[in-house]
């Protein structure tokens, strides 16, 4: 005869489905429930991902020098708080970024003409070129039928890419 016991946990019930648990199976069932919950928590942790971290070139070179000196990769990973996978990739491919990475520009020719226009305008008028001027000129120069919006983000990246520093004037030479 199987006797039944009430199984209560006042803080948190182990399993809501089973109010009555046979004595014979109580230990195995509770362990299985705990294992299932632990697996679910591990799956949740895997899905959550932190921010991507970027590492400076000097840090990468420093890590590679330590490897050349004979320090273990895992030790370097722990000391610098860098994933081991990254260190192994730097060792295999080098510390520099691959050529051709990143988003490609929509119209490279237009960007080069716009950069030349900006430099020419700055030299001729000895005044700064505003971001609004860059945006309107870009919209004039873009080819017909191309889906292009001269957004603030695009303008910021354009200014950074072609080194059009806003606060400094480029004088006539």
Automatic annotation (TrEMBL):
Domain of life from the UniProt record: Eukaryota
Signal peptide: none
Keywords: DNA-binding
Pfam families: HTH_Tnp_Tc5
Listed GO MF terms: DNA binding
Coiled coil feature spans: none
Domain HTH CENPB-type: 98-168
Protein name: HTH CENPB-type domain-containing protein
Phylogenetic lineage: Eukaryota, Sar, Alveolata, Ciliophora, Intramacronucleata
């Amino acid at each position: 005869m199987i006797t039944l016991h009430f199984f209560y946990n006042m803080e948190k019930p182990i399993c809501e489905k089973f109010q009555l648990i046979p004595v014979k199976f109580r230990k195995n069932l509770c362990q299985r429930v705990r294992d299932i919950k632990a697996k679910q928590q591990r799956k949740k942790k895997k899905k959550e991902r932190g921010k991507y971290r970027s590492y400076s070139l000097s840090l990468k070179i420093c890590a590679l020098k330590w490897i050349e000196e004979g320090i273990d990769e895992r030790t370097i990973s722990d000391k610098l708080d860098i994933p081991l996978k990254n260190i192994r990739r730097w060792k295999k491919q080098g510390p520099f970024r691959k050529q051709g990475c990143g988003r490609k520009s929509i119209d490279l020719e237009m960007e080069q003409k716009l950069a030349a226009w900006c430099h020419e305008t700055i030299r001729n008028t000895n005044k700064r070129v505003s971001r609004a001027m860059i945006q309107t000129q870009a919209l004039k120069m873009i080819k017909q039928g191309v889906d292009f919006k001269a957004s603030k983000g695009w303008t910021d990246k354009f200014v950074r890419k072609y080194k059009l520093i806003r606060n400094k004037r480029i004088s006539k030479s």
